[in-house]
Specification:
Length: about 220
């Protein structure tokens, strides 16, 4: 008779039960492994880094009592030729202030060499170019006549609201060739500290009229 086969029971599949008490955790490395890695990294560090870390000096902290005990350094006063440290005084007792003049340009140096004779010759040439003789100028000086003629010369730009020296330099910078005799008069007035010669006479008239009208 042929051998009979025994029937085995069907295998049952295992199931996972998820409940409130069941927790899924991941395996973590033991704490001793991190310490081993740190020791391995420190052992493999280059010798230069070790030497620097060992030889680097630590900043010394001074206590408040040590800082207070240190003596203060005396301040040395600046000596300007006087024991008080102040600038030298003039004979009148006031402080002497040095006035630094700006350096003269070549045009200004040449204008300062112009004498009174050349100024008179320039004015005679200017009067010859006129069609009629100027009136109401009998009481004016030669310098004032030259400046007023420069004020009325419209080819050099407007004369109101600008100083005569600035107007002359602006015309010179634009290549308009203003008369060097005007610069001579202005430089002499600057040395004499004549403030009245800085502005045009027309500008002075307008400012006085505006001031009288505002009052």
């Amino acid at each position: 008779m042929p051998p009979t086969r025994r029937k085995s029971a069907a295998p049952t599949q295992q199931t996972l039960a998820f409940g409130p008490r069941s927790k899924v955790t991941k395996p973590s490395a033991p704490p001793s492994s991190t310490a081993k890695k740190a020791s391995q990294l420190s052992s493999h560090a280059p010798p230069v880094v070790k030497a620097i870390s060992e030889t680097s000096p630590q900043p010394s902290l001074k206590s408040a009592s040590e800082e207070e005990s240190e003596p203060e350094r005396p301040l040395t006063p600046i000596n300007h030729g006087d024991e008080t440290g102040l600038p030298p005084k003039s004979p009148g007792g006031t402080l002497a202030i040095r006035q630094v003049r700006p350096k003269r340009t070549e045009i200004e140096k040449q204008a300062l060499r112009t004498g009174d004779r050349q100024l008179k010759e320039y004015w005679l040439r200017t009067e010859d170019e006129r069609k009629a003789k100027a009136v109401h100028q009998g009481g004016l000086s030669l310098e004032e006549k030259i400046l007023r003629h420069f004020d009325l010369s419209s080819q050099y730009g407007p004369c109101i609201g600008i100083e005569r020296m600035k107007r002359w330099k602006r015309a010179h910078a634009l290549g308009l060739r203003p008369p060097s005799e005007v610069l001579t008069v202005l430089l002499h007035a600057e040395e004499k500290k004549d403030k009245k010669a800085e502005w045009a006479y027309i500008d002075e008239l307008l400012s006085t009229r505006i001031g009288a009208g505002s009052d």
